């Protein structure tokens, strides 16, 4: 056998050894699976911020808080972010629950009592609050929504929701309906606001005020080790800095 053939043979054996011990030749590495995150509609922007920062590759499922929690129990998510207090959950952020009306509405501020009377059906026309010409159209989220549960507890306080209220399945529906109907009123997370609706002062406080009366909580619940690591990140310095761009810290 020639010395040249022998050299090629040893080179081949060396490369084979390297490929076996390091995995670099040929590469057989696979990308890690995405982190499966279930999030209530109100806090979808939080997960989008995580994805935009390229911190984790995430696969997002959005829905009402109770729907997300059922998915977590079934093992469908690594992490759930919901607006309902839950056993084992960690409070990671708060956001103002904005009361929104059509931009043409002349009302700029409400008290909690006025808001309660609107949603109970005792105030049925905006003229009763000083704006002539429009009947009040009440929008509320569905049962199972964390925002609905929070609104019922903090605003309604046992008062029954008006039977005339229109029940909608997401915050996006609230925004779109209010933007298209001058007499409509609804509630959404402040992080979801757009220029097509107008947010109101509440008890004289604006959304960015730390003592705004309706602060919607976001709870994180880990369903796997990967989810626990993401939750730990959100509680650390870098995660808190990310949260502060849009939310209040607990």
Task: Describe the protein's architecture and organization.
The chain is 35% helix and 22% strand. By secondary structure, the protein is α/β, with parallel strands linked by helices. The chain has two domains: 35-94 and 215-244, D-Maltodextrin-Binding Protein, domain 2 (3-Layer(aba) Sandwich), CATH 3.40.190.10; 96-202, D-Maltodextrin-Binding Protein, domain 2. Strands 1, 2, 3, 4, 6, 7, 8, 9 and 11 form a nine-stranded mixed sheet that branches. Strand 6 (137-141), helix 5 (146-156) and strand 7 form a beta-alpha-beta unit. The longest helix has 20 residues, at 3-22.
Whole-number radius of gyration? 26 Å
Main sheet: strands, sense, barrel: 9 strands, mixed
Distance between the termini: 76 Å
Topology-level CATH name of the largest domain? D-Maltodextrin-Binding Protein, domain 2
In percent, how much strand structure appears in the residues?
15-25%
